[in-house]
TrEMBL record:
Pathway where it operates: Lipid metabolism; fatty acid beta-oxidation
EC number: 2.3.1.21
Primary location recorded for the protein, binned into one broad class: mitochondrion
Family listed: Belongs to the carnitine/choline acetyltransferase family.
Residue positions of the active site: H467 (proton acceptor)
Protein's UniProt keywords contain Cell division: no
Enzyme class, UniProt record, top EC level: transferase
GO MF, one example: carnitine O-palmitoyltransferase activity
Name of the protein this chain belongs to: carnitine O-palmitoyltransferase
Location(s) in or outside the cell: Mitochondrion outer membrane
Listed GO biological process terms: carnitine metabolic process; fatty acid beta-oxidation; long-chain fatty acid transport
Native organism: Gopherus evgoodei (Goodes thornscrub tortoise)
Membrane protein topology class: Multi-pass membrane protein
PROSITE patterns reported in the protein's UniProt record: ACYLTRANSF_C_1 (PS00439), ACYLTRANSF_C_2 (PS00440)
Length: 764
């Protein structure tokens, strides 16, 4: 076997004359280069840790300060007011000369002074980052206080921050007062409950606020002092890792390719460019060279982007992260392959990767029994997968092959289908494209990996991401870089192939070997049936709204997000004839290790506006006034969430504490049992500088989406692209008699047009 031969570094034979040792110099060279690369990475990490640890100062600032102190000593000046003399007297050995002792004392004083300045600057930056007054101001018109704040942040934030430079300066997420949380919760539920039900809930809330609540709050306050973030670890564990249901549809989400353009129809070529772009991003990540942004935000979620797998457990999963991985796992036509990413100590180029993937596409070897549907274990319920992993994948070939998959940098599927704007009904084609990315055939993605890259037969691509390790904006940042690098930096030849040279000596991909017994195959089929039932029940509608976009919304003097959220409230009321508890995700990365908070977009004000829009007796002026009030309320709720003053994460953590204490709270039990009938999320574009929409208007991403959160509810993801386009991804379940993705999509279109008409603005 060729792959086995390539793995041997030396061979030996035993003869009557003794042992004949034959070294493979090529293999030993690879060993040497691998070690050299590993040490370079260790040195880079150590250097980055030192630079980040002294931020916002720098090694150069210490040199400048030391030189200044030494110069002052040489000029017989004493800026230390006698401290250098005392340090020299007590700290330096008697065996040193007087000038040497004085120099060491000056260096010690300079170092202490420099450390004091570092601590002071970091404390000042942390205090500055606790200011959030800028959120309430009109975009483009900051107050004098905000201008001064921005100037001070620039002064204390350093000149060239690295990705993790701001981590130690970020403030901790505050614990909101119990009274505020209960009051805001009741306010959010008022339009959704009958008078009698609301009075009952209010009584439970008031009782909780004065009885059990303060006791639970004490534990949370204690945790907020001790832990970096009082929410994030429990959120990761209880919301994600302890979930026993399938990750597919329920948790994982997806991202799409360019909407109108496919840079090359060659599957292997597109895979070569995109994989290389992803690895270039990983290199930037390892070197911490990704820009953290103008406004300091937490970057902790980036750490587990690559080389990470969610490992199933019987009661709870765990995240396995490795510092480095030199290969990716590839799936095609039921077979698994291991593809190395380096040769001769160098990262494989796009053309070399294309050749590797083409070898896989051309490989005629059929899958081993059970191999074709093996990945269905990651698509089904977690407990059967955990038990099967313990029983059938703990030794031998299965263990080695599973390690190759789980320790890969990421997972790549060379899909056998074609997707995109194809056929006579492009809209339906987008729906199929979304479902292909969300669940595929239920056995052709490894849903446990941090992300799976999917390259379709016609060159279209997409991404399926596991949710526990990070939130969608983190993957969005990677995806923007990948798409832009693929097209605008790497590019393709006129024949559609990747650019660059090809080294024919690169070892071929290694086919992974599996020995799956009949009992395990039955478990796989059980997981596959469960996953297929879940996938078949997902109704999806993806569409591009082209009538207007952010450009026209700006003329309404309101935030685009508030505009769309109110349109969604109007669309939902027309769709179902009622209001529902609405979830909108907002980030809390202004705080250290912050993840998300909920914006409860269905408010008293939004309901008043929606009722006015459906009441023919209301005038346009009255409706417009109510819109203004509702939009302002939504912006207030969004700001509160980002500032750590939301209610849902606080209530969740109080519930976790109550479970640890073994006490029951009827109020918290009711809060945590309420279904989110409408779950929404905006996909923000974070790197506009990578795309030139003026000269290349077709190179726009379609965003991404997720499955429905509630069996009778909708999931809606949207992305605002440029000035004239908004793309929506709507999901629900066929089994529900209350929902229909295409019907709701039509209601969203109508609602957006009605809001435009409310402002009497012409269409483009």
């Amino acid at each position: 076997m060729a792959e086995a031969h390539q793995a041997v570094a030396f061979q030996f034979t035993v003869s009557p004359e003794g042992v004949d040792l034959r070294l493979s110099h090529a293999a030993l060279k690879q060993v040497y280069l691998a070690g050299l690369r590993s040490w370079k990475k260790k040195i880079t990490r150590l250097r980055n840790s030192l630079v980040t640890g002294m931020f916002p100062a720098s090694p150069a600032s210490w040199l400048v300060m030391a030189a200044a102190i030494l110069a002052s000593q040489a000029s017989r000046l004493d800026p230390s007011m006698g401290l250098i003399g005392k340090i020299t007297e007590k700290g330096a050995g008697a065996y040193l000369s007087e000038p040497a002792r004085a120099g060491l004392g000056a260096l010690a004083f300079a170092t202490l002074l420099w450390l004091g300045l570092v601590v002071t600057m970091r404390g000042a930056l942390r205090a500055l980052l606790c200011y959030h007054g800028w959120m309430g101001e009109e975009h483009g018109r900051p107050s004098h206080a905000t201008k001064c704040w921005l100037a001070l942040v620039k002064i204390f934030a350093g000149r060239r921050p690295m990705l993790y430079s701001y981590q130690a300066s970020l403030p901790r997420l505050p614990v909101p007062p119990i009274r505020d949380t209960v009051q805001r919760y009741l306010e959010s539920m008022r339009p959704l409950l009958s008078d009698s039900h609301f009075q009952h809930t209010a009584a439970l809330g008031r009782d909780f606020e004065h009885s059990l609540g303060p006791r639970l709050q004490w534990y949370l306050t204690l945790k907020s002092w001790w832990a970096t973030n009082y929410v994030s670890d429990w959120w990761e564990e209880y919301v994600y890792l302890r979930g026993r249901g399938p990750l597919m549809v329920n948790s994982n989400y997806y991202a799409m390719d360019f909407l109108y353009v496919t840079p090359t129809p060659l599957q292997a070529a597109r895979a070569g460019n995109v994989v290389h772009a992803l690895l270039l991003y990983r290199r930037l990540l390892n070197r911490e060279q990704i820009k953290p942004g103008t406004l300091p935000m937490c970057s902790a979620q980036y750490e587990r982007m690559f080389n990470t797998t969610r490992v199933p457990g019987v009661e709870a999963d765990s995240l396995q992260h490795r510092q480095d991985s030199r290969h990716i796992a590839v799936f095609h036509a039921g077979r698994f392959f291991r593809v190395g990413l380096y040769h001769g100590g160098q990262l494989l180029g796009p053309r070399e990767l294309q050749a590797q993937f083409q070898r896989i596409l051309d490989d005629p070897v059929p899958p081993a029994p059970g191999e074709e549907t093996l990945a269905a274990l990651t698509a089904g319920p977690r407990e059967p997968w955990a038990r099967a992993r313990q029983t059938y994948f703990g030794s031998g070939r299965n263990q080695e092959s599973l390690r190759a998959v789980e320790r890969a940098a990421f997972f790549l599927t060379l899909d056998t289908t074609e997707q995109g704007l194809l056929g006579p009904e492009p809209g339906r084609a987008l729906d199929r494209y979304a479902k292909a990315l969300l669940h595929g055939q239920c056995h052709d993605r490894w849903f446990d990996k941090s992300f799976t890259l999917i390259v379709f037969r016609n060159g279209k691509i997409g991404l399926n991401a596991e949710h526990s390790w990070a939130d969608a904006p983190i993957m969005g940042h990677l995806w923007e870089y990948t798409l832009a690098t693929d097209v605008f930096q790497l590019g393709y030849g006129v024949d559609g192939h990747c650019k660059g040279e090809l080294d024919p000596s690169i070892p071929p991909p290694q086919k992974l070997q599996w020995e799956i017994p009949e009992e395990c195959r039955q478990v796989i089929q059980g997981s596959l049936r469960a996953a297929q039932a879940l996938a078949d029940d997902v109704d999806f509608h993806t569409f591009a709204f082209k009538d207007f976009g952010k450009g026209l919304i700006k003329k309404c003097r309101t935030s685009p997000d508030s505009f769309i959220q109110l349109a969604l409230q109007l669309a939902h009321f027309r769709d179902k004839g009622k209001f529902c508890l609405t979830y909108e995700a907002a980030m809390t990365r202004l705080f250290r290790e912050g993840r998300t908070e909920t914006v409860r977009s269905c408010s008293i004000e939004s309901c008043n506006f929606v009722r006015a829009m459906t009441d023919s007796a209301q005038s346009a002026a009255q409706r417009l006034a109510l819109f203004r009030v509702a939009a302002a309320k939504h912006q207030t709720l969004y700001r509160r969430a980002m500032m750590g003053a939301g209610i849902d994460r606080h209530l969740f953590c109080l519930y976790v504490v109550s479970k640890y204490l073994g006490v029951d709270s009827p109020f918290l039990r009711e809060v945590l049992s309420e279904p989110w009938g409408l779950s929404t999320s905006q996909t923000p574009i974070q790197q506009l500088e990578l795309f030139d929409l003026k000269n290349h208007p077709d190179y726009i991403s379609c965003g991404g989406g997720f499955g429905p959160v509630d069996n009778n509810g909708y999931g809606v993801s949207y992305i605002i692209i440029g000035e004239d386009l908004i793309t929506f991804h709507v999901s629900c379940k066929f089994s529900s008699t209350e929902t229909d993705a295409h019907r709701f999509g039509a209601n969203i279109r109508t609602a957006l047009l009605d809001l435009r008409a409310l402002f009497n603005l012409p269409l483009k």
